[in-house]
Specification:
Strand content: under 5%
Radius of gyration: 16 Å
Number of domains: 1
Shape: globular
Structural class: mainly alpha
Number of helices: 6
Strand order of the largest sheet: 1-2
Order of helices and strands: EHHHEHHH
Largest sheet: 2 strands, antiparallel
Distance between the termini: 7 Å
Helix content: 55-70%
């Protein structure tokens, strides 16, 4: 059994915020909100202790019992990589919006919505799968292997 643990409720809260805010952004055509979510995701990737959506879980939702912890043996690196990929897609969407290519921006945004939804509702983290594939291929920087059960 591994001593590495990840609270999957924090991950789910993060995904729910990403999905919800991006849907609102699309519905009201708030491109700035896509940029905001991109920034939150990238900050949370590179500085996990400053993750805004995780902070909402840790300091508001969990203490009030609104979301129960779901701590599992897991590696945090693949989840951070997945979040970084999503943040990168949203950064590309922001650039597309700035270049007057809103269709491209919204397609990239919907890719993130779709992948976050797949993770939240079906438990399939495509970014995590990518991380482990890169690890198996020996790609530099992808040093953490899947935990053995």
């Amino acid at each position: 059994m591994s001593d590495r643990k990840v609270d999957h409720s924090a991950l789910c809260t993060n995904q729910a915020f990403i999905i919800g805010l991006l849907l609102i952004a699309f519905i009201v055509d708030a491109k700035w909100l896509v940029t905001f979510v991109a920034a939150v995701m990238l900050v949370g990737t590179f500085l996990p202790k400053l993750s805004l959506f995780k902070a909402v879980y840790v300091y508001i939702l969990k203490p009030r019992g609104l979301v129960k912890p779901d701590v599992k043996a897991d590696n945090p690196e693949p989840h951070l990589f997945a979040q970084g990929v999503g943040g990168s897609f949203l950064t590309a969407a922001t650039i597309a919006f700035a270049l007057a290519a809103p269709l491209v921006g919204w397609v990239l945004t919907w890719i993130v919505i779709g992948l976050a939804s797949l993770n939240l509702f079906a438990g399939i983290c495509v970014g995590c799968l990518m991380y482990y594939w890169f690890n198996r291929l020996g790609v530099p920087g992808f040093k953490v292997a899947r935990l053995q059960k």
